Structures are given as structure tokens and as C-alpha cells.
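Cont'd.
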Amino acid sequence: MDLINSHPVLEFSHGERVSFSFDGRSMDGFEGAPIAMALHANGLRIYRRTPKMRRARGFFCAIGKCSSCFMVVDGVPNVRTCVTPLKRGMNVETQEGHGSIKLTPDEAV
Amino acid sequence: MRELKTDILVIGGGPAGLSAAAAAARAGAEVTIAESDLHLGGQLVKQSHKFFGSKEEYAGIRGFEIAKILKDEIAQYGSRVSTMLNTTVSGYYGDEGVVTAMTGEEEYLRIAPKRIVITSGAQERLIPFPNNDIPGVYGAGAVQTLMNVYGVVPGKRVLMIGAGNIGLIVSYQLMQAGVEVVAILEAMPKIGGYWVHAAKVRRLGVPILLRHSIKRALGGDLVTGAEILELDDNFSQVGETETVECDTICLAVGLTPTNELLWQVGCKMKYVPFLCGHVPFRDKEMRTSNEKIWMAGDVSGIEEASAAMIEGRLAGLGAAKSLGLNIEPGGFEKYWSRLNSLRAGEVGEKIRVGVSAVVVDGWADVQ
Amino acid sequence: MKASATFESGVLTDERPGAVKPPRDLWEKHKGGLVLVECPQRIPCNPCNTSCPTGAIVPFEDINNVPTINYEKCTGCAMCVAKCPGLACFVVDLTWGEEIALLKLPYEMLPLPQKGSTVKCLGRTGEIVCEGKVENILEPLKDRTKVVHVAIPSDKVGDVRAIEVA
């Protein structure tokens, strides 16, 4: 991971190092820190594609306000990855367009 | 659905919110802080530099250390102050006196507070240029979060847009993190931030290009560089466009108050350019036109964290006083005198003018 | 890219209130050195005064004032160098050696210099002015701001404001 290993002023206390999945690839991150930070540390920059133009979107505001970092997390679309803590074994996927909700058989119209 | 009752709900646990909570808890109020981030402290936790101001506002102490001091202060009130992290307030139902909120992406809850202090802070401004949407164009606050809170390297070569205090400070912090700052662009003919902040990065070799701006970000999916241009007095291009190689373009072009809740509540608002956006009218105790709602910090107008902490104390006192609690005698006068002293100089002039447009003695004449 | 080295871009270009040199006769014989503050803008800030153990940095009537210094009281202790949030205080000891002065400056970068090593000395726009020898590295306030003592040619004390450690 691309981490700041030494700093003249700050000390970083990372959470437990855990594995998660990004588009089917296994990678490491720190539990409790936002998903977007783990992806960035793994060199990933593209978190979703816009619905019409398919423009790349990624990390931007880091405070859950701008919607740039929406991804599909454990099947749920439009998750604000910059403020959602990473958990062990999470399944994180690049979001295409608006994302879709998978309905259970009971919910299907 | 979970329902909570509290004396005072503080919305936002940054410098203003923590100060408001401390002042109100000291007076005996039960306080609940709703914070949308995963930790308290707001922007303070990202600040590795020492603060300006006076001793009372922790001058000479690093921002993240100030966050610890404020957290320790509210901790001494024990269960009187409770905190909900990762909790975003989504609406206020005035007739019912109910605030709705969401913890994480799933849990909705209702909070019934007797009083509310809104300290929701600010959000970053954008400027328009082609490709400003591609990954690698980041807000300055986001870069700080990435590198100073989570210890992640934000990029290799950064072009900074804006030489206000944030642009200057974040440039210095990038260098501390081992990241190269190619240049700082400033559209105005002089830096907007403190001169000493600029001197710090200049002497380490970072160029500050006055009367310069970004024309476009270069790259397909990711930033590979930027075209920059020089401006004349009318902000039109002079000379040739230059190309700069960089993998990150950091926008530090100002903040604007995060005022959606105040709008939704129906607080009387005014657009004040010197305070960087629409801000609520307020009385001397930081009460808004809604008799149950106070506010403080950047949502009241963009200013330094030192001022946000003092405003927070005022709002906390105001909310506690209205509950009939005994507040510290002379508190309002003390905090106003500190605020006035911080705002007394040239750099405080815009704030003074801006604030004078929205501080009211009574509500009868406010449109 | 041509960066302008103007005052408006954070470069001190001349003496002005808040950025004055000590009186020459006192400076030349004062062991331990005297402070130079480069804080020429009125901003709300006063830790240089509140950290000064001798009262040499005169108490601020208005917190927005630029610092004024009573050089008779300055001991060159460099507490202000360590405390100033703007990293705007420097101490220069002209009695250090023959044509050699000791500059005490704030340092908050990595890597840390080694005592006895040679470092590049930078001017106000980051240009290399000369080389200097690191005589000491202190952390007076135990708050991660180092005060580095670097010996430089006496005629460069008006120019050197930072060091670059390889």
C-alpha cells in the first residue's frame, strides 16, 4: 500500500489490516478507515463511471457530500465510500451508471 | 425506529460544535452531538500546523492536538455529553420538534431535542475548467484527510490552485508528507492567505504564480497534467498557455457554508459575499430566527477555526441559557471581547463588515 | 513557469515593520545571538510574545499588531523560533566564529539533519545560498518543531532562511 511511512509531525495509528475484494481482486486495507482510502492506497483511482458519458469518477471531497466516490458495496449501490468504514471481507465494486438494486423474489413486482 | 430525547442537539462535532457542547454541558445541559464523519474534531484533526490567534484559542498548538483538548474537555462531563458518529442529520420537522438522522447507510433515527445548535461547517468550492471532474482533481480538504488522517500518499506531483491559507497550508503539509508541489497558482495579484504561510513554502522552493489560473486538466481517465495561463487585470489570458506535468490537481479555491439545514428549517438568511455564501441572521447569542435554533462556526460565515471555537461557546451558552440553566456569569461579554479582538485587524475587516450585516438586536425588522 | 519573487507572493524584499534587523553594534557583540522576526503582516497572533521568557518581544496592545522587539532584553534563546506558528522567527549569533555566524531556524521536514553534517542553505525563494554545518538540533517544546543550529558565512545571515537535508 502507498502509505506515508515517516512524517515529521504526525503518527498514524492504522486499524487492523484486513482483506477485501475490489472487482474480484483481493487487496488489503485497514479496518475502520473509509473504503475510499484503502482503494487509493492500493493505487486505484476510478471508483465509478457516469451514466451517460461514462466519465471516470473517484475520490474527491472525502466528507460524504459530492457523490463522486459512489460504489457498489456488498451489492448495495451508491455507497459513499469516503465515509463508509472498511470491513473484513467486504465486496467492493466499480459502479456503472446509477447502479441497480437487486430485488429479492418477495420484492419483485 | 430508534428515538432519542436530549436537551441540546449539536449538529456537527468540529471546533464550533465541540465548543458549544462544552459550554452547554458546563451549564448543566444534556447534550448530544451528531457527527457525520467517523470521528470528532472536524477539520481540526487534519491540521498538522500550529494555530494562530491567542493563548485562549490555543495559539501555537497544532490543530489535531486542539481537537484532543476539546474532546478531553467534553469527556469530563461524562454521560452528560453523548456522541453519535457516522450520523448525518437529514431534516427537521419543526411542528413536531423532531430531527431525523441516519447512522451509516442504513439506520434511520429520530431525535427530539429541546434546543438545536447547528455547527455543520463548510464545504469546498469548485471552479469550472475542462476535465475538472476526472480522478486526480481533488479538494484540498480531501487531500488533507487522505494524507493527514489516514496516512495515504495523495499523489506524486501536485499542482495547487489557490494561495489562500488553505492552499498555502496544504502545500506545506504535502511537502511534510514527502509529496512534490509543482506550483501554487493564484488568480489575484497577491496571495490571499497569511504572508508567513506563503514564506514557509517559498523558502522551500515552491513557486507561487500570481495572476495565474488553470485552463484545463489534461488526461483521459486520470490527471496527467494541466494547462495554465497568465491573467491580466480583467482576468483575460495574456501570453502563451503553459503545460505542467502533475498527477494531482488540488483545489483550494475557498469554502462555502454548509447551510442546507438552515434553509430547510426556514431560518432567515442573507447572501453575504464576505462570509462566502448564504448565512443566517443571528442575535448576539448566536440564535437564529428560529427560537429553538442556534448556530456557530463556518456555517455562520467562513472564518478561522479560532473564531469558530469562540462562536461555539456563545451558541452553547445561548442554548443553555434559554433552558433556564445557570451559565458562566459574564460569558457572553468575555467571548465577544475575544472575537472582537481576533477580528480587529485588516484581515478581519471583511469578517467585521460581513457579520455586521447579519447580527440583529431583534427580529421584528428582519425580512 | 516564472515565479515572481515579490512581497505579494511571500518573499521579504526589504526591511519593514515586523521585519527589522537588530541594531548592528549590539548584534555584533551579543553572545547567543538576537532574534529576527519576519512577520510583516498584521494578523491576529501573539505566541512569539507569550513564549518569550524575557519580555524581549513586547506585549501586543492589539493582537493584530506586528511584533516589536526590545533588543536589550533578547537572549537569543530561540523559544519564539520553536513556538511561532508562522515559522517566522530566526536567531542569528554573529559571535560564533571568525566570519562564521550561527543561525537558529525552525525545521519541520524530513529527513532530520545529522549533527556535524553539511546541509544546503536556502534563501527566501528556495535558491541555494551557501552550505552550512549543522551544530545542533533541539526540540525545545517537545512538539516536533526542531530548532536547527547551522553555522554559515556571516555575510549570508540576511539571506539564509531554510535548510535542505539530502
